[in-house]
């Protein structure tokens, strides 16, 4: 469920006669203002233009008896929000390689979206504006997909956003919260917040109420990750500091540059994670916390097996980082 819409699972029959599970996103009946309908139409228009493996696909959009809905790709898994919520309750941190893989996939989606063009090759100048754990879906197969372009800025929008801020307050860049001019770098800011929260085991900008959260965003005080997670290398720590900064001009300049830097860090650390590792995280989370299932003995064995696999991933990652640090210290000592 979202603020202005609700999502249902359904089965769609396509023109070739095949049936596939899909997600149906419907505007809530209470959202009767014309601007919300226009925003929904914009989301449909943008969604059907975008074709990228890290972006949830929109197949169709309809209005039936004043009910607006989208037919979308179904992602069998969980939003990153669900995994982080449970991890933060326990003070647990995501394995470094898994967090970097998720970040790389997210940034690949942003790189494509920021450079997207219309059918005539004209730039869409697209800015998502709502990158958050709620809108990053992780599948059981380890796919990472960005969703919900309802608040996006583009050159093809029909709804004028004006002073509408929207988005999740804890992930808004300061200039967006202040309703100032902004560009694609607000999405990079949010990506940096996500990476920090995955590796720190807690929220970054989180207040007792909306006002306190916005004030925390405006202060933009970002603790060094290595102070809360010794497995984080300096390169990752510095990257986060260059993303989650108050001044847009001080941030990494583009999603392309950010992707290249993340890929270099992954290569330098080694032991890279992939879809299988993220799938382990998702399946373990769902096996433990899906309230709709009665976990029997066989399922407990599955949970234990997934936990062992995940522990091996985390231990391997920590060992690799320690070895990299030791080699670096050895080279410095040799000098």
Strands, helices and their partners?
Elements: E1 5-13, E2 19-27, H1 34-49, E3 58-64, E4 67-73, E5 77-79, H2 80-90, H3 96-114, E6 136-139, E7 144-146, H4 174-177, H5 185-200, H6 210-219, H7 234-243, H8 255-269, H9 275-289, H10 297-334
Antiparallel strand pairs: 1-2, 2-4, 3-4, 5-6, 6-7
Global Rg: 21 Å
State the fourth-level CATH superfamily of the largest domain: Transferase(Phosphotransferase) domain 1
Low-confidence stretches: 328-335
Task: Please tell me what the overall shape is.
Answer: globular
CATH fold group of the largest domain: Transferase(Phosphotransferase), domain 1
> What is the terminal separation in angstroms?
58 Å
Helix content: 40-55%
Strand order of the largest sheet: 1-2-4-3
Q: How many domains make up the coordinates?
A: 2
Strand content: 5-15%
CATH architecture of the largest domain: Orthogonal Bundle
Under the CATH scheme, which class of the largest domain? Mainly Alpha
3D structure, described in words:
With 335 residues, this protein is α+β, with helices and mostly antiparallel strands. The chain folds into 2 domains: 5-73, Phosphorylase Kinase, domain 1, CATH 3.30.200.20; 77-275, Transferase(Phosphotransferase), domain 1, CATH 1.10.510.10. The chain contains 10 helices and 7 strands. The chain has helices at 34-49, 80-90, 96-114, 174-177, 185-200, 210-219, 234-243, 255-269, 275-289, 297-334; strands spanning 5-13, 19-27, 58-64, 67-73, 77-79, 136-139, 144-146. The strands form 2 sheets. Strands 1-2-4-3 form a 4-stranded antiparallel beta sheet, with helices on one face. Strands 5-6-7 form a 3-stranded antiparallel beta sheet. Strand 1 (5-13) and strand 2 (19-27) form a beta hairpin. Helix 3 runs antiparallel to helix 5 and helix 9 (275-289) crosses helix 10 (297-334). It is globular. The N and C termini lie far apart (58 Å).
């Amino acid at each position: 469920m979202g603020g202005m819409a609700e999502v249902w699972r359904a089965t769609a029959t396509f023109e070739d006669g095949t049936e596939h599970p899909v997600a149906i996103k419907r505007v809530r009946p209470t959202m009767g203002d014309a601007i919300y309908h226009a925003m929904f139409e914009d989301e449909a228009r943008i969604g059907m233009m975008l074709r990228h493996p890290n972006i949830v696909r929109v197949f169709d959009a309809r209005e039936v008896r004043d009910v607006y809905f989208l037919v979308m790709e179904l992602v069998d898994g969980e939003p990153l929000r669900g995994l982080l919520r449970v991890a933060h309750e326990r003070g647990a941190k995501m394995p470094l390689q898994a967090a970097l893989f998720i970040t790389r996939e997210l940034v690949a989606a942003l790189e494509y979206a920021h450079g997207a063009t219309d059918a005539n090759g004209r730039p869409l100048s697209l800015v998502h504006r709502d990158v958050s754990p709620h809108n990053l879906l992780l599948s059981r197969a380890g796919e990472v997909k960005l969703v919900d372009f309802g608040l996006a800025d583009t050159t093809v929008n029909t709804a004028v956003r004006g002073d509408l801020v929207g988005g999740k307050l804890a992930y808004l860049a300061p200039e967006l919260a202040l309703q100032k001019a902004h560009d694609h770098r607000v999405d990079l800011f949010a990506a940096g917040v996500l990476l920090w929260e995955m590796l720190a085991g807690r929220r970054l900008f989180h207040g007792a109420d909306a006002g306190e959260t916005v004030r925390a965003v405006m202060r933009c005080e970002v603790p060094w990750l290595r102070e809360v997670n010794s497995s984080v290398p300096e390169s990752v720590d510095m990257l986060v500091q260059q993303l989650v900064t108050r001044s847009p001009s001080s941030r990494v300049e583009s999603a392309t540059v950010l992707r290249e830097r993340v890929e270099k860090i992954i290569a330098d650390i080694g032991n890279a994670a992939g879809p299988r590792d993220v799938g382990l995280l998702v399946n373990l989370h769902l096996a433990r916390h899906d309230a709709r299932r009665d976990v029997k003995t066989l399922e407990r064995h599955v949970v234990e097996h997934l936990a062992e696999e995940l522990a091996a991933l985390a231990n391997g990652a920590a060992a690799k980082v320690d070895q990299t640090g030791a080699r670096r210290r050895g080279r410095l000592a040799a000098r």
